[in-house]
What does this fold into?
Amino acid sequence: MAQLRIALAQVNGTVGDLTGNADLIIEWTRRAAGRGAHLVVFPEMFLTGYPVEDLVLRKSFVDASIETLEATARRLADEGLGAIPVVAGYLDRRADVVDRVGQPAGAPLDAAAVLYEGRVAVRTAKHHLPNYGVFDEYRYFMRGDRLPVLRLHGVDVAVAVCEDLWQDGGPVTVTREAGAQLLVVPNASPYERNKDDVRLELCARRAREAGCALAYVNLVGGQDELVFDGDSIVVSGTGELLARGPQFTEDLLVADVELPDAPAEFEPGETPADAHDGTTITIERVLLSSTPVPPYAPETPPCAEPLGDLGEVYGALVLGVRDYVRKNGFRSVILGLSGGIDSALVATIAADAIGPENVHAVLMPSRYSSEHSITDAEDLVKRQGIHARTVPIRGMVDAYEAELDLTGLAAENLQARVRGNILMGLSNEHGHLVLTTGNKSELATGYSTLYGDSAGGFGPIKDVPKVTVFALCEWRNAQIAGLPPLVRASTTPPIPRNIIDKPPSAELRPGQLDTDSLPPYDILDALLDDYVEKDMGHDALIAAGHDRALVERVIRLVDAAEYKRRQYPPGPKITPKNFGRDRRLPITNRWREIAAPHTGDPARVDTKQTSTGA
It folds into this structure.
């Protein structure tokens, strides 16, 4: 048996920062060398960051990616690291095709290269291009058609990229034909709930199909709406878990892997192979080192424990906020703190993400604000050590109403818009990033006010259903050891019990409760999950057990609020289908799921945009 020490660099890069990401490649390769690694693998498109979206279509950006890759190979050698092969993701292009309509401009490639001894030893590109959910890669990339197989210390190592694991056929199938002993896979796989178990099962299955050990390295960090959770994995050829990295944190996962000896003969060159997906892939064999590693005592590789469902969700939200703030050049955030559960959770996430000293809360009581809402908000501020100021809005609202003579819903929305103006004004004055506090249930049904509570730069719980908001608050209160530094010595939970226990209310009119306009959230969220996440239609929703009248009402609310969601800021994706990259419906749209009486035909209903809180 041969031995190989592989290092998976689960690192947080920044889209577009080629110089900074190249520096991280050098830094983490140096760390891997210090651990005695024989091979280092970085995530998918790490050099450019991922996803780079329409930057892919700029010739200047592709040129810079290729030039930086080659310069990084030289830097590694100059700094004494050239003897360690480094697999790095980057943006490349095909030079053998001519631009034409229906093909991405410049023929870009989602590529990976092996850097060795000061040069780019081999290049490859993603074969299977995902075009579902948040992915739109037919728009951006050409398909790769090569599988590199590297002879390294007497072991044959194949390289595939991310989606090539998720689809049948292609590089995994060809890896078995090539007889490789190890398949390494750079990934940029976004987080969503329960995906960690799916990934582990996938890696185990593909390792068995490829007939070799598999090393899966995943990106970590936040990028606009996406959060990458790491969770890198090494499995044996039989699918046994050998090593696993932590979630939502940078890590160098070093694993000693015992592998079958490769055949003594190795003939560099190219061989076509049937990919069993209707295409042909060229196996490209490249000799790096034929000398086996001298026997050594292997270390026991780490196997990080998954965080659990709510721990994962909370970790994703914290990392998403931290990286959006940091990578966009902000130092502090500001939010409206109402004494309600949504703003309490957002404030807590922000304090955990960037420190309570960088979180500014504004209490903006109106004539309808209850005394307990004010005292609950003040209690949270004291527990967490965040900054706070109180700006009563009654006089401002009175002045508007005196001029405009607003009543009913318009008067309610005016309060939210005055609060939005206050937050935006303080943001302009002090440079804070405004965090919105709306949850997914509200966004779905249109219970948010344009240019009011929807005004801001980032929505930390935009993709979090209301039931999960309550669960996260309970979970976070139980994590006393994770409290921000200013209050870590205390055993007081960060969120006051009264905030969790009291009935939710927008407090925009006397005695208002959310249940005045919406069903209980456990019922609503189950229906929204089926309609929004699973795309079930009217009849299917009723067949699934949902109340007919509620189905028809919620469908109308969700459909009418599409124009409002388009104007909401980005926020971290945690569900399989978020409002944004995942779900793209037309605003001007006469299709409705509600069936016409006796016919079963879709009814043409009034499309006037009347959802609550407009």
About this structure: Confidence is low (pLDDT under 50) at residues 596-612. Residues 181 and 436 are 50 Å apart (CA to CA). Residues 408-430 form the longest helix (23 residues).
